[in-house]
């Protein structure tokens, strides 16, 4: 029929009727026939399974149709200092950021919105933290979690909470969550136990211009975490730099021979240097040790030759000393025999005994004197 437009709105739907593109009214379930005459009548149906009213008419309805909004929608209008928790049938499904303006259909799904005042504090309540933790186990993820910083501080650690670049507090072991909206929030986990730092591959020139490559290992702990992070932007990076500078101070002022003769001098100088620089910054340096001193290839060959020459010289000295001692002993023995015939006779008998040990049978002619005069015959 001319000028008549009809539609059917199902029970799980709502519809928006427009006349010539302008909002006319909201239609509840039922059959409708509208006489439009020369006007253009249109109907747009919305399924209530998707409660969000996603339409260009949202802002118009919020500003100009309060009665229609109150009857058909759950209204959400947040300021720039507010966030909200969006629940559907009692289940948290979304975190709404500040300045959000939305409409949700009433009817099929029970939509509730809990408004949060961001000026009341940066930290979420323990109850809400627990609810957010539980949502991670669901198949349907919570939308808008980027607006919340979730942190778990392990045992034997503390968390350093920083808001807009300022250290706010220390967090003990546990689970926490913080609003990220309108602020910069960060938590750095700090281990309170003894920790190890490796300073590897440091190439340094000695006082006699020999390039060395050193690897250093240090043990440290935080003595005052809040002081460390209040005075230093990156405490561990500062410790690393001071160890580097201490290593250069120890190696660059000494020759290669001095370093090789007393390797512990490097540890002593680095510990003293770093402790003086870190005094009052909440860091405790417990020990430092040089793990490796790596020489250039050509320097290794030269040192090997030097060591070989030194050992050879030491061996010659020992050999000459033993030869001298043996000669002196023979000379003393000869002097004793010269002045004492009995001693000479005993020496002769000792020699004969050693000779007899090596033969099976001896025939002697002419008496013992003949034997001593080399007249014996071996069979």
Q: Compute the gyration radius: what is it?
A: 48 Å
Within the largest sheet, what's the order of strands? 3-2-5
Q: Report helical residue fraction.
A: 25-40%
Largest sheet: 3 strands, antiparallel
Q: Would you list the SSEs in sequence order as H and E?
A: EEEEEHHEEEEEHEEEEEEEHHHHEHHEHE
Derived from helix and strand composition plus strand pairing, the structural class reads alpha+beta
What portion of residues belong to β-strands?
Answer: 35-45%
**pLDDT averaged residue by residue:** 84
Distance between the termini: 154 Å
Total DSSP E strands: 20
Given the structure, what is the number of helices? Answer: 10
Regions with little confidence, pLDDT below 50 for 5+ residues: 375-379
Estimate the global geometry from the Cα principal axes: rod-shaped
């Amino acid at each position: 029929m001319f000028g008549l437009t009809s539609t059917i709105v199902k029970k799980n739907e709502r519809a928006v009727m427009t006349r010539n593109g302008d909002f006319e009214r909201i239609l509840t379930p039922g059959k409708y026939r509208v006489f439009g005459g020369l006007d253009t009548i249109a109907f747009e149906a919305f399924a209530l399974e998707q409660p969000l009213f996603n339409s260009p008419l949202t802002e118009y309805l919020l500003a100009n149709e309060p009665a229609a909004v109150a009857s058909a929608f759950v209204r959400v209008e947040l300021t720039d200092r507010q966030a909200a928790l969006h629940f559907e049938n009692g289940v948290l499904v979304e975190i709404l950021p500040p300045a959000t303006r939305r409409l949700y259909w009433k009817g099929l799904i029970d939509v509730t919105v809990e408004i949060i005042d961001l000026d009341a504090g940066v930290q979420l309540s323990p109850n809400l933290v627990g609810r957010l933790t539980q949502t991670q186990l669901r198949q349907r993820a919570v939308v808008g979690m980027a607006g919340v910083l979730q942190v778990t501080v392990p045992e034997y650690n503390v968390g350093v909470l920083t808001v807009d670049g300022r250290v706010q507090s220390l967090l003990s072991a546990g689970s926490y969550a913080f609003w990220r909206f309108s602020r910069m929030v960060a938590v750095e986990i700090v281990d309170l136990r003894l920790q190890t730092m490796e300073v590897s591959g440091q190439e340094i020139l000695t006082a006699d211009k020999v390039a060395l490559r050193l690897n250093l290992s240090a043990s440290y702990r935080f003595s005052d975490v809040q002081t460390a992070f209040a005075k230093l932007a990156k405490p561990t990076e500062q410790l690393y730099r001071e160890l580097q500078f201490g290593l250069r101070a120890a190696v660059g002022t000494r020759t290669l021979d001095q370093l090789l003769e007393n390797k512990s001098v490097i540890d002593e100088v680095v510990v003293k240097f770093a402790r003086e620089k870190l005094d009052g910054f909440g860091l405790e340096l417990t020990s430092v040790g040089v793990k490796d001193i790596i020489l250039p290839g050509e320097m290794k060959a030269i040192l090997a030759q030097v060591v070989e020459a030194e050992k050879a010289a030491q061996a010659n000295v020992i050999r000459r000393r033993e030869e001298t001692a043996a000669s002196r002993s023979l000379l003393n023995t000869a002097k004793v025999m010269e002045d004492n015939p009995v001693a000479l006779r005993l020496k002769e008998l000792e020699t004969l005994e050693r000779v007899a040990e090596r033969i099976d049978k001896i025939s002697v002619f002419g008496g013992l004197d003949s034997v001593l005069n080399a007249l014996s015959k071996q069979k």
